[in-house]
């Protein structure tokens, strides 16, 4: 049976997809990946990312300032983000990728927290969900989300924290992104978490071209491998594959207000 998937996190505006968009989207569609959300990382990519989404039916855009690029983000870039969100461009579905990161050598964490607060305020103002990055910062992120109270909520992408941390996000109304980490046998903690969380709180993602699956180390990750993440998730979950696929698709459509995809 063929399933329809939404890759809710793919940096499709980077190589190896740049200049090969049609071929890459065709490969994704062959695997059942009919829709792809592309989150921005820096303000200088906002305009080109929106054009990319406008040029290709399967693509949808999220705009945000990623914490890993904190040295590039200043008031001018935040103003650019505010202006783009206010114009409410077609195919804009979220604010992201935003969040917190304590894994960096020089995290400038106070600045990260300020920038996150400002972007959560923009998401609230424009009634958009958020796509959240979090490394070694789950507790601090949960506290920030509790204070911000963004009505549309969002997703903590690429989650690799504890069950208790995942449950804390879910209690706040946030979804959890399931990606290629679960393809590694050594990732028993994350595999166990994804097996136990409510199915209605999960979203499928690749984070391509990053986070390659087991067996593809050293190669760029690709959106069609969302289908492989799904297969592994089915091995971990008690529900039948049909139910898992339907729920993942519905979760993505509901959170990001996506149109109904059409299976290839």
UniProtKB/TrEMBL annotation:
PROSITE patterns: TATD_1
Keyword terms: Hydrolase
GO molecular function: hydrolase activity
Matches recorded under InterPro entries: DNase_TatD-rel_CS, Metal_Hydrolase, TatD-like
CDD domains associated with the record: TatD_DNAse
Family affiliation: Belongs to the metallo-dependent hydrolases superfamily. TatD-type hydrolase family.
PANTHER family named in the record: D-AMINOACYL-TRNA DEACYLASE, HYDROLASE
Protein name: TatD family hydrolase
Biological source species: Serratia aquatilis
Lineage: Bacteria, Pseudomonadati, Pseudomonadota, Gammaproteobacteria, Enterobacterales
